[in-house]
Amino acid sequence: MRLGPERRFIMHTGSAVPGTILEEGTMETLYMIKCAVCNAHCCRHVAIHIDTPTTKAEHDTIRWYLLHENVYISIDHDNNWILEFKTPCREITSDFKCGDYRNRPAICRDYPSSEEYCEGETTDVAYTHLFKSVEDFEEYLEEKKRV
Ligand code: SF4
Ligand code: SF4
Q: If DSSP codes are grouped into helix, strand and coil, which group holds residue 53?
């Protein structure tokens, strides 16, 4: 199974507002303004891009993921399968800033790219399918059989 942090989908962590003013005209400056009115939405989950399950054993692994609380699976618009853990970053401060902004991981620094909207900026859903339970997933498999 190929595993990797997912950077394009809504699960990607992002840039909570920094404590200091940055240079004008940069993405960071732009996001200082946007992040200031957000509750660190993008810092509240971890997402990993997983291989598309095709075998019975892989389907069973998906079931195992979904048996856990606060674990979701989704399929994005490019047909990527995403494993998501709904769990907030420990660095979110009580006023929704990043507690270690200058030392934040690269995945936070790079989000969103200049071509992307961050998840707090759009109401578009980033997936075509969302499974929050084993039942959701089994329903999807049943539907696929019928098509
Ligand atoms: S979702 Fe967007 S606006 Fe909200 S903290 Fe993340 S980057 Fe900032
Ligand atoms: S390190 Fe900071 S920017 Fe990155 S997810 Fe945590 S709170 Fe957000």
A: coil
Nearest to 134 by CA among 74, 67, 39: 67
Q: How far is the CA of 114 from the centre of ligand 1 (A)?
A: 14
- State in Å: Cα 136 to ligand 2 middle: 30
Q: Directed axis angle between helix 56-66 and helix 134-146, to 10°?
A: 150
User: Count of domains in the chain?
Assistant: 1
Nearest CA to ligand 2 atom 1: 104
**Phi, psi (deg, nearest 5) at residue 104:** -70, 150
Maximum average pLDDT range among 2-11, 15-24, 76-85, 118-127 = 76-85
- Neighbour-count burial for 85-123, b at 16+ CB within 10 Å, e otherwise: eeeebebbeeebbbeebeebeeebeebbeeeeebbbeee
Query: Which of 7, 30, 38 is the best mutation target for the ligand 1 pocket, counting ligand atoms within 8 Å of the beta carbon and taking the most?
Result: 38
Domain assignment of residue 85, given as a range: 4-146
pLDDT tens-digit readout, 43-95: 999 999 999 999 999 999 999 999 999 999 999 999 999 999 999 999 999 99
